[in-house]
Amino acid sequence: MARIETAFIEDMKPFGEDVAAACFNCGTCAAICPLVSDHFPRKIIRYVQIGAKDRILEHSRDLWQCLHCGLCTQTCPRGANPGEIILSLKRYVVANWRRS
Amino acid sequence: MYNPKDIIDVIGANVRMTRNPFGIPKFLVNSWHQDLHPPQKGEAMLFTGLMYQFVPYIETSTDYLARFEDSDWSQYLRYARYMPGYLSGLGLALLTPGSQKRKYNAILQNIVRILAASRVSFFYRPELDDYSGVLLYDLGDQDAFVQHARYVAAKLKKAGIRKLITVDPHTTYALKVLFPKYVEAEFDVTPYVELINLHSHNGTRRVTLHDPCFYGRYLAVSDTPRRVLSNMGIDCVNVRNSGSFTSCCGGPAESISPKLSDQIVRKRIDELKSTGEPIVAMCPICLGNLRKAGANVEDLANVIAAGING
User: Fold this and answer.
1) CA–CA separation, B88 vs B25, rounded Å?
2) Nearest C-alpha of chain B: how many angstroms from A63?
C-alpha cells in the first residue's frame, strides 16, 4: 500500500513547474499519448498528487519512455502540463540516483 | 529497454569530456563546411548545433543498441562510462560509413545555398558552432545540461554573437527557450526556414510534410515551411496528425529503447504514406528515424535547393 504524502508536490517544486495539483485525472493525456501504455502519464501524475514517492521510484523507468512530444500538454483540459510533470520527475529521479 | 541511468551516465560523461554526446572529436563530426567556404562575415551566425552531423553516428550507435536491447549483454552498458569518451567516439566514427556522413553534410551545404539565394546576410564560424546539450535536458540531467549550456552561451557571448540562424527544431528550442530560462543567455534566434525568400512557378509537385514536435507544437512554426514550399510551387498534402497535432516519429526514445522507437515510427510512416505523396522532413532526428525504418524521406532543404537549381 502506498503512503500518502501531500507535501510531496512541494518537494517537486525545485525540479519543475508546480502544476500537478491542477490535474483532475481525466485521462486525456493517457488517451493521446503515442505510447498507449498502462495509463501513462495519468497514473504517474496521480502518484505525484498523493506523494507516492516509492511508487514513482519503482516505476521510474516508465518516465524515460516518454518522447517529450508534447501532445499531452497540447490537449490537457486543465493546463496541467503533463509533459513538464514527466520531465520534472525525470529530474527528481536523476537527483535521487546522484544522492544515493 | 536499457536502464536509463546507464544511458544518461554515458551521455553525460561524453558531453563533459568532449562536448558532444557521442565522444567524437569535433573535427571529425563537423566537416561539412570545408569544401564550401561559407561567408565569414555577416549579420547573423549560422549555428547548426551539430545535429545533422550527428545523424550517421546515431544510426550506427542505435543499430548496436537495438542488437543487445533486453539481452543479458545490455547490463554491461553501465561500464561504458568508464571508457574515455574520445576512445569510444573514435571507434564510433570509424564504424560509421562515409557515404552517410556525406549525405547529411549535403543537407547543411544546401541550407547555405538557400540562405545565399534568399540574400540573407550570414556567416559561419565552426569554432563557435557547438552541440546545444538538448539531449541532456530531455533525459532529465538538468545539472549537466545547465553546465554545458553555460559553456556554449559563454563562448558565443565572448565572441560578440547576438543573432543566430538555426537549422533544426531541437537546437532552435534549446537556444530560443531553454538558454534564456536556465542560463539567462538571450540570443536572437531564427530558424533558417523563416528566412527563405524564394519564388518559383515551375513546380507542380505535391509532398507530405512530417512536422517535428518541436516546430509543430513547442515553437508553433508549422505554417512557415508550407508557405515556403507554396512559393516554390510545391503543394503540401496534410495527414490528419499534422501541424500542432503532429505525431512523434519515435526518435527521442531511440537511445533508451530502439524497439519502442521502431514501433512508434512504423505507425507514423503508415500515416505519412497514406497520401501517396513523397514524404518531407525538416528535423535531423525525424529524418534519420523515418529513413532507418525504411521510409523514403527527403529533407526540406534538399527539396528547396532542387527548386533553386531546377
Assistant:
1) 10
2) 9
Q: What is the largest CA-CA distance in chain A?
A: 37
The secondary element (H helix, E strand) that includes residue B278 is: none
Does residue A3 fall inside a structural domain?
no
DSSP string for A57-88: HHTHHHHTT-----HHHHH-TT---HHHHHHH
Q: Which residues of B touch A (CB under 8 A)?
A: 1, 3-5, 7-8, 138-143, 213, 217-218, 244-245, 247-248, 250-253, 256-257, 260, 264, 267
Q: Return the bridge partners of B122, or none.
A: B44
Domain that residue A79 falls in: 8-99
Residue tagged 524564394 (cell numbers): B198
Nearest CA to A45 among A32, A31, A26, A64? A26
Tens digit of pLDDT for each residue in B144-165? Answer: 999 999 999 999 999 999 999 9
Q: Is the pLDDT of residue A82 over 80?
A: yes
Amino acid making up residue B46: L
Prediction ipTM score:
0.94
A100: closest CA of chain B, how far (Å): 13
Residue in chain A closest to B182 (alpha carbons) equals A16
* Residue listed under C-alpha cell 527539396: B303
The 10s digit of each residue's pLDDT in B187-221 is: 999 999 999 999 987 667 899 999 999 999 999 99
Answer with the residue of higher pLDDT: A18 or A52: A52
The pLDDT tens digits of the residues spanning B76-104 come to 666 566 666 666 777 777 778 889 999 99
Residues of B in contact with A90 (CB under 8 A): 139-140
Q: Which of chain A's residues have a Cβ under 8 Å away from the Cβ of B141?
A: 94
Best CATH choice for the domain B198-309 from the list 3.40.50, 1.10.10, 3.30.70, 3.30.300: 3.40.50
